[in-house]
Amino acid sequence: MCFECNSSPLSRRSLLKFAGIGGVAVMTAGFDMTMPAFASNAPALLPDEALAKLQEGNKKFVADTEACAANISKRRQDVAKSQAPWAIVLTCSDSRVVPELVFGGVTLGELFVARNAGNVVDTDVLGTIEYGTEHLHAPLIVVMGHKRCGAVSAACEVVSKGTKLDGSIGKMTQPILPVALAETDRGDNFVDNTVHANAFNGAERILTESAIVSRLVEEGKVKIVPAYYDLDTGVVDFLHKV
User: Fold this and answer.
1) Residue 171 lies in a domain
2) CATH for 79
3) Distance in angstroms (rounded) separating the CA atoms of residues 139 and 210
4) What CA–CA distance (Å, rounded) separates 113 from 146?
5) How many domains does the chain have?
6) Which domain holds residue 110?
7) pTM score, two decimals?
8) What is the DSSP string of 32-72?
9) For residue range 35-60, what is the model confidence (pLDDT) as tens digits?
10) Can you tell me the distance from the alpha carbon of 39 to that of 83, in angstroms, rounded to the nearest whole number?
11) Is 12 part of any domain?
């Protein structure tokens, strides 16, 4: 399927429909192990330029301006054998949080996305981020929590009410529990405060637990930025960098 840039523009609703039929791909933690270890077409963006590009895309999303998905068929062919994403986004699996749309309807090959409930940093996520920074040369890592996050809410109930979570859900939320515990005495917005703190915690863990990412940050090649997505307004608040 191909959309010419100056033909029929797409509204946000059209983009959502378009994404639903597979036109806007979510690049998840998996990658093609047969591809070369180092991508030849490394992005030319600096970390601050990548961040500015995400910020501008989010403004378009919030304003609901018309967007154009230009020539997806050609773009698919262009990135079929290699990729050079200019940002890595770790965010929640929540169906309402779709980075490719939230950041302005970016297309194939632009974002390297890792998602799980509660945007938790684990071994799989760290490996994915290391691959994205060292081998694909993405200059920016965004750890994005969101309003009314179910995984964070569940962790807060464990801390505040002693709720027992069955199955793997309990194990999944364990890394969030210390974050929630630290936020129990910080006012009425317990869950929302924990969402913010969890994004900061994830960003800090990436920096401290990955020697690869830490080195790239020290060299000025990579920046890590926590963020918060408001489900009601669509606005992404980029918090100060770690």
Assistant:
1) no
2) 3.40.1050.10
3) 15
4) 15
5) 1
6) 47-148+203-238
7) 0.78
8) -TTS-SS-SS-----HHHHHHHHHHHHHHHHHT--B----H
9) 334 344 555 789 999 999 999 988 98
10) 7
11) no
